[in-house]
Design goal:
Blueprint: H1 2-11, H2 21-40, H3 83-86, H4 89-100, H5 104-115, H6 120-127, H7 131-155
Helix pairs in contact: 1-2, 2-6, 4-7, 5-7
């Protein structure tokens, strides 16, 4: 972060406003991180970028596809979470732990979209990914977080 901040201060006079300032700073951050990773010969494990094959929502929660009366509908719909517990400190800690267990790419997308409030376009531009890729990563991350919270509320 310090290297990024120094680069921002040194290069602010070259900022051309072709993107938002936030996106420009984030691009400096990602370039610094990439350079450092190459220099230190560290690589992100391939497994962090690839789907692990686990379904995003347990298939048992849906009716069988061959059920002509109710194809692909919820057999066990999501239950409402207890409102008084959603913002409890313990629940927030559970959510933080669940985010930390996400693959790196999903952590980054959730952090930018849901925590920092970036738009889809800003994320795609900063990370140089397609809108479809961003949607898939965000959907997978949110599904895993929802599942982790459901498990937490069921055990309480």
């Amino acid at each position: 972060m310090q290297e990024t901040w120094l680069a921002v201060l040194e290069g602010i006079d070259r900022f051309e406003a072709r993107s938002s300032l936030k996106t420009w700073i984030y691009r400096i951050l990602t370039n610094r991180a990439k350079t450092r990773a190459q220099r230190e010969h560290r690589q992100l494990p391939f497994s962090a970028l690839v789907d692990d094959g686990a379904p995003e929502v347990d298939e048992a929660r849906f009716r069988p596809i061959d059920d002509p009366k109710f194809p692909q509908q919820w057999a066990v719909p999501p239950r409402a979470w207890p409102h008084e517990r959603i913002l409890a400190r313990e629940t927030v800690e559970q959510l933080r732990d669940a985010v930390a267990q996400l693959p790196a790419a999903q952590q980054l997308i959730v952090g930018l979209r849901d925590i920092d409030g970036w738009s889809s376009d800003e994320v795609c531009e900063a990370l140089e990914i397609t809108p479809g890729n961003q949607r898939v990563l965000l959907h997978r991350a949110r599904s895993r977080l929802r599942s982790a919270l459901e498990d937490y509320f069921e055990t309480q």
